[in-house]
Structure prediction request, 207 residues.
Amino acid sequence: MSVTVKICGITSVEDALAAADAGADAVGLMFYEKSPRFVSLETAAAINRALPLHVARVGVFVNASESTVQETVAACGLTILQFHGDETPEYCAQFPVMTMKAFRVKDAESLEALPNYPTDAWLLDAYSPAALGGTGERFNWDLAIEAQKLGRPIFLAGGLTPENVAEAVRQVRPFGVDVSSGVESAPGKKDAAKVKAFIAAAKRALD
Prediction:
């Protein structure tokens, strides 16, 4: 079974369809207004209407109110919620769709919080003091291997590119990989050739 691939930080219908055509299993839509990849409800709803049904729509939130998340799910057809802030386990558990908690991994101590979150999956991203995600930095993948032993599907993120994703998949064997800046021509604008190369490399890694 090949790895699940999520292309995050999609900001246009064009980029969403290019990702889907290239074989993406999921696209990430950023609903955090401070992000350069922020999308409006109108754009996200248009992306939802355009995408084939088999592609998961992942909404990325940072410390959003419960009502904001619920309204966004309803407006944009989200099928997975990704929480990238200081959300509590109780907060993450209250929504009637699949959930994923993101953790910024700095060292082994960063993994201690994972078992507190019985979400459907955990996303491991690189810690950076400068931003919550999308920095293009990677972390020690040995920590992701350790996280795999804790009992939830792992999405590996942080510094992945078309050039290194196959190595990452072979080393970590995560449930999924997540990329944003590694396939962009500019923040929020995906490079279709890089997206295609990334997905192909990830899917072929374990052949």
User: Anything to note?
Assistant: The radius of gyration is 15 Å.
